[in-house]
Amino acid sequence: MVQLGLNEMCYLLDIRLQIPVQNLEKQVNSRPRTQLQPPFSPFTPLLTVSKLLFLDALALQIFKDEEAELGFKPRHQVLFTLANAVSFVTAVIQCEPLETPDLGSMDCSHPLGNFSFISTCTFNCSEGTDLIGIEETTCGPFGNWSSQEPTCEMIQCEPLEAPDLGTMDCSHPLGNFSFTSMCTFNCSEETELIGERKTICGSSGIWSSPSPKCQKVDRSFSMIKKGDYNPVFIPVAVMVTAFAGLAFIIWLARRLKKGKESQESTNDPY
């Protein structure tokens, strides 16, 4: 049972529901001032309002056809008159219970009871997902939510393709080419990878690096670098280099010796 005092009821009836005072004064002037103690049928959930007092020259009449306007369900015509204390029982309007969305969370406040009049629920989605719908909804006086329950949708990255002359291997923990998906690239023989070998789909829907390319290798400059050569090549190259160096040394020595002999013959007069 929830106990509401004068201030709370005035807030609900006057501030939140915006009941015109002028209309109430007209009703007071046109009706006799009598005190009613209406017998209400018991049902749940219940809301008890005790010692509800109204100001001088002001009365409020609630009709069955206006019950939803207030967010409550009165069972009979009720008249509240000047300076009278009235106790009555009524049921709070209920909305359909809401559930937490997949891949998200829900936070609700229930001033008058779970998923009842003026209950408010706020929704959030986890990292790597988008909220589809309205973030907040409120239970209205007619038992309807102000907006439908939102959903959380996984963020997608642009689908990737294997590069020409290469292959691509991907893992998708949460869905094809979605948040946390990772792709690894490899190139075929006689080609080299230009770019990053791995890329990951981020929470904003963007890959960590662009797709790489496979480019053919120039064999004339990469034979030794890639290890694609005849095993006899190195010994032969060493021998050729050694013989060339030795021949140069012999030639240089002969030139020096010949020059020395020519100088000695010039200096000797006999």
Spatial extent as radius of gyration: 46 Å
User: Residue ranges: pLDDT <50 for 5 or more in a row?
Assistant: 1-7, 13-22, 31-70, 74-89
The number of distinct helices, counting runs of at least 4 residues, comes to: 5
In total, the number of strands is 16
Could you give the topology of this structure?
Elements: E1 3-4, H1 6-16, H2 21-30, E2 47-52, E3 60-62, H3 67-70, E4 72-73, E5 78-80, E6 86-92, E7 104-109, E8 120-125, E9 129-132, E10 136-138, E11 151-154, E12 166-171, E13 182-187, E14 191-194, E15 198-200, E16 213-216, H4 219-226, H5 233-267
Parallel strand pairs: 1-2
Antiparallel strand pairs: 2-6, 3-5, 4-6, 7-8, 8-10, 9-11, 12-13, 13-15, 14-16
Question: How do you describe this structure in short?
Answer:
With 270 residues, the chain is an alpha+beta fold. The chain has helices spanning 6-16, 21-30, 67-70, 219-226, 233-267; strands at residues 3-4, 47-52, 60-62, 72-73, 78-80, 86-92, 104-109, 120-125, 129-132, 136-138, 151-154, 166-171, 182-187, 191-194, 198-200, 213-216. The chain crosses the membrane at residues 232-253.
